[in-house]
Specification:
The protein has one domain. The chain contains 14 helices and no strands. The longest helix is centred in the N-terminal third of the chain and has 30 residues. The protein is globular, with a radius of gyration of 20 Å.
Length: 356
C-alpha cells in the first residue's frame, strides 16, 4: 500500500501540481484562475513533448533517452515559471494565481446549491469513468504501444499485437500520445494500463471541465449562479451523450486515455477558448499579449500530438477565426503570428503525407 501511495502521489504531482506551476508562464491578464493555469501549463508540457518525441522517434532513439530529455524540459519550465512567479509577486505584491475578479452572484444560497450539484455530478462522472473502465478495440493498439515502449525501451519499433519486431511505424509515431502515457507510467512506477484506465480519466475529465469553467467565467462574468448552471447543463449533456460509441461524450468518459478523445474534448475546446479571448481583445481594441500566441502554438502542437487529424482541424479553426477577426476588427496584423502558430501543423501534415 505504501508503494501505491507513492505512485499516486507522483501522478498527482505530474498531472496537477507540475502543470499548475508551469501555467504561471501563461497566466496573464485574461486568465489568472487555477483552472486556466492548470490547463495552460499542461498544454506547454504537451507541446514540448511533441517537439522532443517525434524527432527522436524518426531517428529511432530509445524511449528512456526521450523520457530523460522530456524530464529535463519539464524541470527547465519549472525553474523558468518559478523565476517569473517571483518577479510577478514582487511587482504585484500577490500570487498571480489568485482570481482577478469574483462572480458577485456566487454567494447566494441558490448559487451555493448549484455549485454543490455541479461538484456532485462531476464526482459521479469521475467515479463511473474509473469503475466502468473497459478496454475497446483501439486499446489493443494504443495502450499496447505505451506498454511496449516502456518495457522494450523502443518507440514504434515493436509490433504491439504480437511483440515481434517491425519497421518503424512513423505514421503513428507522428502523434505519440501513447508515449506520454508510457512516460507517466515510467516516472510513477505504476503499470501502463492502470495509468491509462484509472489515473488519466480522472485527470483529463477534470481538465475538460476546467476549460468549461473558464468558458463560464468569460460568458457570465457577473453571476456565479449562471456559471454553475452552465456547467451543470454541460454535465447533463455528457451524461446523456452515449447514444453512439462515436460521440464526443463517449470518447470523454469511456475513452479519455486515447489521443483522439483528448483532441475532441480538450484541445478543440481550449482552442475555442483562446479564440474567444483573442476576438474579445480585438473587439475591445486591446493589445494581444505574447502569452496568448504562445498558447495558440502549444494548442497546435498538442493537436498534432493527439492525432494527425488535429493538424487539419487546428489550422482550419485558427485560420478561419483569425481571418474573420482581422477583417471585422480591421486588425490584419494578427494574421502573421497566427500563421506562425500554425506552421507546426503544416510541417507535421507534410511529414504525414511523406510517410503515409
Amino acid at each position: 500500500m505504501r508503494i501505491v501511495a507513492v505512485q499516486v502521489l507522483i501522478l498527482i504531482l505530474l498531472l496537477l501540481a507540475v502543470p499548475m506551476a508551469i501555467g504561471g508562464l501563461c497566466a496573464g491578464e485574461d486568465g489568472k484562475g487555477p483552472a486556466f493555469r492548470w490547463v495552460g501549463g499542461q498544454f506547454l508540457l504537451w507541446a514540448g513533448f511533441q517537439l522532443i518525441c517525434v524527432p527522436m522517434i524518426l531517428r529511432q532513439r530509445r524511449f528512456s533517452h526521450m523520457a530523460a530529455l522530456f524530464a529535463g524540459y519539464t524541470v527547465l519550465l519549472l525553474l523558468l515559471a518559478a523565476a517569473v512567479e517571483l518577479r510577478r509577486r514582487r511587482r504585484e505584491g500577490a500570487w498571480s494565481f489568485l482570481p482577478a475578479r469574483r462572480a458577485e452572484g456566487g454567494k447566494s444560497g441558490e448559487g451555493v446549491l448549484l455549485w454543490i450539484v455541479f461538484w456532485g455530478l462531476l464526482l459521479f462522472q469521475l467515479v463511473q469513468a474509473v469503475r466502468l473502465a473497459y478496454g475497446d478495440t483501439d486499446d489493443a493498439y494504443y495502450v499496447a504501444v505505451a506498454s511496449v515502449a516502456e518495457n522494450s525501451d523502443t518507440m514504434y519499433q515493436v509490433l504491439p499485437y504480437t511483440g515481434g519486431g517491425t519497421q518503424l511505424d512513423s505514421r503513428h509515431g507522428l502523434a505519440p500520445f501513447p508515449l506520454w502515457i508510457a512516460f507517466l507510467a515510467k516516472l510513477s512506477g505504476m503499470q501502463v494500463v492502470t495509468v491509462a484506465q484509472v489515473a488519466l480519466p480522472v485527470a483529463l475529465i477534470a481538465m475538460t471541465y476546467g476549460i468549461y469553467r473558464v468558458f463560464a467565467a468569460e460568458l457570465f462574468p457577473a453571476s456565479g449562479s449562471q456559471q454553475a448552471l452552465f456547467l451543470i447543463f454541460t454535465e447533463i449533456l455528457v451524461l446523456f451523450g452515449n447514444y453512439s460509441i462515436y460521440t464526443v461524450e463517449n470518447f470523454m468518459i469511456a475513452r479519455s486515455r486515447q489521443g483522439k478523445a483528448a483532441l475532441g474534448n480538450i484541445v478543440i475546446p481550449f482552442l475555442l477558448l483562446l479564440l474567444l479571448l483573442l476576438l474579445r481583445r480585438l473587439q475591445e481594441k486591446r493589445r494581444i499579449p505574447a502569452a496568448l500566441y504562445v498558447l495558440f502554438g502549444a494548442a497546435a502542437l498538442t493537436g498534432c500530438l493527439c492525432s494527425t487529424l488535429g493538424a487539419l482541424l487546428v489550422c482550419m479553426a485558427v485560420g478561419l477565426a483569425g481571418l474573420i477577426g482581422a477583417v471585422c476588427y480591421k486588425r490584419p496584423g494578427i494574421l502573421a503570428p497566427l500563421i506562425v502558430c500554425c506552421l507546426p501543423c503544416v510541417a507535421y501534415a507534410v511529414l504525414y503525407l511523406l510517410f503515409d
